[in-house]
Design goal:
The complex is a heterodimer of chains A (57) and B (791). Chain A is mostly helical and 57 residues long. In chain A, 77% of the residues lie in helices and 0% in strands. Chain A is elongated, with a radius of gyration of 22 Å. By secondary structure, chain B is of the alpha+beta class. In chain B, 45% of the residues lie in helices and 17% in strands. Chain B is built from 27 helices and 28 strands. In chain B, the strands form six sheets. Chain B has a seven-stranded mixed β-sheet, with helices on both faces. Chain B starts with 17 loop residues before the first strand and ends with a helix. Classes of the chains: A mainly alpha (57), B alpha+beta (791). At the A-B interface, helix 1, helix 2 and helix 3 of A face helix 4, helix 8 and helix 9 of B.
Chain lengths: 57, 791
């Protein structure tokens, strides 16, 4: 069997896999709110510092 | 103190700030919130943004209804013994500090396990344990830190909202197929008759075929449905040639690969659908934080306190109010039904309804209309009607509110598609019959080629991309338009109707004029100082208007609610208030609001309040008068007639004393005479007129606060720009017409290949994306150019 079949199968599987991931991402609501997460991800760093400082007081 | 603004909310602290931990606060409420955050290690709230907070409101007893089982049921989205989830709408959410504090609610109440903010929608989704806490305490906690949720009658009916994500799915499917099919079809375009390719091309082709199946039967579904509906209604809308093109592309390609004639047009097919869906997606600009569908339900409370016959208080659902029920309305609560005031002093703010910001004083026995907000103390009233039959709410039984404005309106694309489709069919028939006589084998080929190449992708994309881009530009300039068809309607307007109060007048400031014996210096000193002590809205307004004076301590100060103020200082006994209170001899009634003044029981004179018009009103009207008929439609009396006449161009029609229904009928009448009406209003009393008009624009001082159902919301600060927005919409139509011309040129080129029977897949594969992309670029560049002129 020609190697082209293997290559094609792999490429289609990879493509479909990414497509399914996309569908799952849409379904979980990732695209519903595109703003809040961008702010939220900046918080973690800032929360820790003041906490430590108040505890050492 | 170098900085005199409140550490919590940023308001001016005045002369007596409350100092706590070396920080100044404007009121005890703000200080308390700070204390709460301070105790719980949450002061990071203030690091993210300067003074992000809001003053917490008085909430005593306000949320008692939240312990009612049937109301909790409606407000929560999930309920079990251990977990309850509720999504609450909080208008105050405005910065990153808000997100941070609301997502840290669990530190304030350990029984809240999770809270998640959606910034765009201004909602917080709270998960809590109902055994240890309840919805009421969550809401009270939120209110106590200045984030009062807004719970209205709308929440009661809404049920669970479904998010519609089909367009994203379809776009994903089409994009995925488009990309893959392109790769698969490339080899055949460039390596013709190569041995290696000859061997495998069948597999490549069937792979493309299988990839295109979901595109045709799922992603392009809407076009078939819409074309079918159009044909059934005897309309040749734009989706008819699209559906025809898609099906011909699919059938011909399948036949070609099945009989080994050629490679088919699968790449053009999926590309076409992908671009069309992209246009649809781009046009769909939504403002999560705005709602264009609001009716009275968004304003009205969900529950109200009923006084039972035995005197006990009970929270009942607003829909359960019956005629004759006794209701208790607290300070800052909305009156949900028409009724008669039985007990207490009513000071009713009808700004929701009329846009008029000055509260009206009501005595017991007076009739109160639904929609007013009590602003001073507790009152008791007896219901005269049920909610749906009240004076204001009755308006919504009018048919206008069930009508979809887009029905019966042929948009520019469908307008051109009528002629376009017929022309294409004629060309196809002529070309086919020519080839039938010259070379019959090619006839079918030519017929399908014409339908394929004429598939109006570029035409279908012109309007979505032009309007879509303009929607975004308008949005940035604080003119929030519901959808693309509103811009198109706006371009066809020939009559502009304005509401008066709250629309062309500003709620924030008004002016007053003094008539009578002029006051001595010491008298005006006392006047200014006595006004300082009063919280009555008229006093506040007058206080702001009068000249600055020194602060003195009054010997005596007394406020008679509903009458006026009495103040004494160094032998001057000043009375300020209603005519009868100050003992005015001449009771000449004016139509405007007045405040009378007397000194030592000698009548001095009166202050007459006039509406203050928004800046640029006169200029705007002068710009508009060249192109449009202008009308002022006011619910008020004629008190402002002379002022308006002076201010506005002579041809403006001024009509007063209009009830909400009258406004609606007025617009209906003019529409029947062929007018295309733009209604500009603000209050709930304009709701009918906004719905009836071709385009209804609501003016809003603060877009986060409520505005009635409308087609567009315009920020009050941009009011004077209205003319430019209308003109920009007109230019948008011109852009679309030019891009039609552009796409016709592409079609003529394509038709040349089609009619002569030389349409190879590679030509279609180049021509189709090229025309689509150049249209997108053309419209985007042009609309951006218009947008720059707007700024």
């Amino acid at each position: 069997m020609s190697v082209i079949y293997i290559v094609l199968t792999v490429s289609v599987i990879v493509g479909v896999a990414f497509f399914i991931v996309f569908l799952l991402a849409v379904k979980s609501g990732q695209y519903d709110d595109s703003y809040t997460p961008s702010v939220r991800m900046l918080f973690e760093d800032e929360i820790v510092k003041p906490k430590k400082s108040t505890k050492t007081d | 103190m170098e900085n005199n603004s409140c550490f919590h909310c940023g308001d001016d602290c005045g002369n007596h700030p409350i100092t706590f931990q070396e920080k100044s606060f404007c009121c005890n409420g703000c200080k308390t919130v700070f204390e709460i955050f301070n105790e719980n290690d949450l002061t990071c709230y203030y690091d993210l943004q300067n003074s992000p907070g809001a003053i917490p409101k008085e909430i005593e007893g306000k949320y008692d209804f939240l312990s009612k089982e049937n109301i909790i049921e409606k407000l929560t989205e999930f309920r079990s013994d251990e977990i309850e989830i509720a999504t609450l709408y909080i208008p105050h959410i405005h910065c990153s500090s808000c997100i941070w504090i609301l997502e840290n609610l669990k530190k304030l109440n350990p029984n809240i396990s999770d809270s998640q903010v959606n910034f765009g929608k201004k909602t917080v989704r709270v998960t809590y344990n109902p055994q240890a806490t309840d919805l009421k305490s969550v809401v009270i906690l939120l209110s106590s830190i200045g984030y009062e949720p807004y719970i209205s009658l709308d929440d009661f009916k809404a049920g669970k909202k479904q998010v519609n994500r089909t367009l994203i799915y379809k776009l994903g499917v089409a994009g995925f197929a488009f990309g893959n099919i392109m790769f698969l079809s490339f080899p055949e375009y460039f390596e013709i008759n190569e041995f290696w390719l000859e061997q495998y091309k069948h597999m490549f082709r069937w792979l493309m075929f299988s990839l295109s199946i979901p595109v045709v039967f799922y992603a392009a579904q809407d076009y078939f449905v819409s074309a079918y509906k159009g044909l059934k209604a005897r309309l040749l809308n734009i989706d008819v040639p699209i559906a025809l093109g898609v099906s011909v592309l699919f059938i011909r390609s399948t036949v070609e690969i099945a009989f080994d004639i050629g490679s088919g047009f699968f790449d053009s097919l999926s590309g076409l659908v992908f671009f069309l869906l992209l246009g649809k997606f781009f046009q769909q600009k939504t403002y999560d934080f705005l709602s264009f569908e609001r009716d009275y339900k968004s304003y009205f409370p969900i529950a109200i306190t009923k006084i039972e016959k035995d005197g006990s208080e009970n929270a009942i659902q607003v829909y359960d109010i019956e005629k004759g029920d006794r209701l208790l309305i607290r300070n800052e609560e909305l009156i949900p039904v028409d009724g008669i005031l039985i007990n207490g002093k009513g000071k009713i703010d009808y700004s929701f309804v009329t846009g008029e910001s000055q509260p009206v004083t009501k005595e017991s026995g007076d009739k109160l209309f639904a929609g007013g907000k009590q602003t001073a103390g507790v009152i008791e009233l007896e219901a005269l009607k049920s909610v749906e039959q009240s004076y204001l709410t009755q308006l919504w039984s009018n048919d206008v509110f069930n009508k979809n404005k887009e029905d019966g309106f042929t948009n520019i694309t469908n307008n051109i598609s009528k002629h376009f489709t017929i022309a294409i069919l004629i060309i196809a028939v002529i070309a086919t019959s020519y080839w039938l006589f010259t070379d019959a084998t090619k006839a079918m080929n030519v017929f399908t080629a014409v339908l394929i190449i004429a598939c109006p992708c570029a035409i279908a994309l012109s309007a979505p991309f032009t309007f879509g881009n303009l929607l975004r530009i308008f949005g940035k300039l604080k003119f929030y338009v519901k959808n693309a068809s509103v811009i198109e309607q706006l371009a066809h307007i020939n009559t502009v109707i304005f509401d008066k109060t709250g629309t062309i007048t500003s709620n924030k400031d008004s002016s007053a004029e003094y008539e009578g014996i002029s006051l001595s210096d010491s008298e005006s000193l006392v006047l200014k100082n006595s006004l300082r002590g009063s919280n009555h809205p008229l006093s506040r307004t007058l206080y702001n208007i009068l000249d600055e004076h020194n602060i003195i301590t009054l010997d005596r100060f007394e406020e008679h609610i509903g009458k006026g103020i009495e103040a004494k200082h160094e032998g001057i006994n000043l009375k300020i208030g209603s005519a009868s209170f100050v003992g005015s001899a001449n009771q000449t009634s004016t139509l405007n609001t007045t405040v009378h003044v007397s000194s030592n029981d000698v009548y001095k004179g009166r202050f007459t309040f006039y509406n203050s018009y928004r800046k640029g009103v006169a200029k705007l009207f002068n710009q508009l008068k060249k192109h449009f008929d202008l009308v002022i439609l006011s619910g008020d009396n004629e008190g402002e007639l002379e002022n308006l006449k002076k201010l506005l161009p002579a041809k403006t029609k001024l009509i007063f004393n209009q009830k909400p229904d009258d406004k609606l009928e007025f617009i209906k009448f003019h529409q029947s005479e062929g007018a295309k009406v733009l209604m500009v209003g603000d209050g709930l009393n304009d709701a009918g007129a906004l719905a009836q008009s071709d385009v209804g624009i609501a003016i809003s001082e603060n877009v986060n606060v409520f505005s009635p159902a409308c087609d567009a919301i315009l920020d009050a600060s941009k009011f004077k720009q209205l003319y430019r927005f209308i003109m920009a919409s007109k230019s948008a139509i011109k852009i679309i017409k030019w891009s039609f011309v552009l796409s016709f040129i592409y079609n003529v080129i394509g038709l040349y290949f089609a009619v002569t029977g030389q349409l190879a897949p590679v030509v279609a594969a180049i021509l189709m994306p090229l025309s689509s992309i150049s249209i997108v670029v053309f419209t985007t560049v042009c609309t951006n150019f218009i947008g720059r002129k707007l700024k």
